[in-house]
Amino acid sequence: MDAGRANSDFGRFHRVKQEPDQYDEPDQQSPQRNQGADYYEACLSIRAKISIAKDILAKLSESDRRLALFKGTCFGPWLDIQSKYGDPLLIHLMLQTQFFPEGALADEMWFRIGGHELRFGREEFCLITGFRFGPTNSLPEMRGNPFRERVFPHLPAHKPVKGSDLLSVFDSRAFAQISDLDAVRICLLLLLEVGFIGNQPSSVVSDFRLCLVEDLDSWDRYPWGSYLWALTYKQLKNALPSRQHHVSLKPDKMAKYTLTGFVYAFKIWIFEMFPVARVWASRSDVIPRAVAWKRTLAITCERCLTFLDVDDDGSQPLMGLSPTDAERETDWWKDSKSFFDGVENDFERPAKRVRSYSPPPSFAWFGESSPVAAATTTGPTPLEQRVAALEQTVCALRSSQQALEAGHRALKARQLDLQAGQHAILGSIGPLQETMERVLEASHRAAGVKAFLSSFGTVHECVTSDDDVVEGAALMIIGNVAKQTPPLHVCRDPQRLKVATTLLPCIRFSILTMPLTEKDS
């Protein structure tokens, strides 16, 4: 199909009006209907909710150790994802440009836009997601499930763990009470089940994944690229060919369909291939590429149309994706590249071979095609046992190191608290010294008053304390000023009080503040 006809047919789709608040719907395309000769509209729902990465980041940020542990896994970079929208309008439009060339491999998809033929396959999926590719066929069965026994002890053995069980622990107070490693395992499973695969809360979490997450090293080495690509490829390839009846629907009815799998990676591939995407989104220089993109404007029907307009200079799509120098140096690309060059197709799974033992968790990711797995059909060799023991020791050392680092941070915080307390104590010494000086001065004054009273021989027998002496002195001074006798006569004349207050501002006059009687007046 030429570009002119594509634009003409899609123009009817372009002119359909939508409410502005529907553009930012992350999961579901706005339900509209406008039949075209080559393009039609449909209500597409994308099950995978990559936005759960933001919820996981918020939860793990409550603990520095948990956050560091998760970021150290192969899923760690996804906590920094910048866009949570699935953009189903763009996905549905691009799927309608799919064609099936002769001689194409069974694990790739082709799209034709304005004479440009674009491929979306394993290599592109790997570069976008940063997930390792490798053999996944005939994965061995494993005995025991310690992770399930620790985190879900309330579930009967015959009852499977579901996505709702993971969410229940994640959203409850129990999440703060489980170990840091088990908290990270819960988050890894949630991101995989909800964010990448698109399973519903009622979906069962496979025992294999529950066992695999027990050994985080094996989890990181597992070829998640191969696993997720197989699910996503099947969904995308058959999305529209299996729904040809959509075209025959009446104009007043809307075609609807749902996609599971990691469809978000397909959207990022569109952004990477078409320069016009930089008008609606921005890209930073980080790895993997899916984390680098941030949508700045909503992808509306009108803006979707610009992806088909590839006639102008600078608007033509790229011929393909190639790894950067930084991507070539990553372990996941090196391993995946070796797999791409040595294995043509890993989708057809051979029949499983019977094992008489359950391999150590560290070897759980090897398939039957692995030389290690093929050589150990009767039992683990001493070398494998030593390697497994070493791997467990390394895991224990890593955990100890992380605990020491957390303790070091706590000690530094305590040191800062002690320094702050020291500064506070030093700051209070000055006021304490001033108070002591005032006390000494008052003591000297009291001694002077006693001597003054003794010189007149008028120390009253009830004078038993410094306070009494001070009050007596005040009364004597008041009497002397008024030229009255005896000097200790109690008088409450306001003028005399004013004189006494002026003379002795530091002496307490509690006795002089009693209510006045008619006699006193």
Automatic annotation (TrEMBL):
Residues spanning the signal sequence: none
Region (Disordered): 1-35
Domain DUF1985 intervals: 106-230
Pfam families per the UniProt record, alphabetical: DUF1985 (PF09331)
Name of the protein in question: DUF1985 domain-containing protein
Native source species: Centaurea solstitialis (yellow star-thistle)
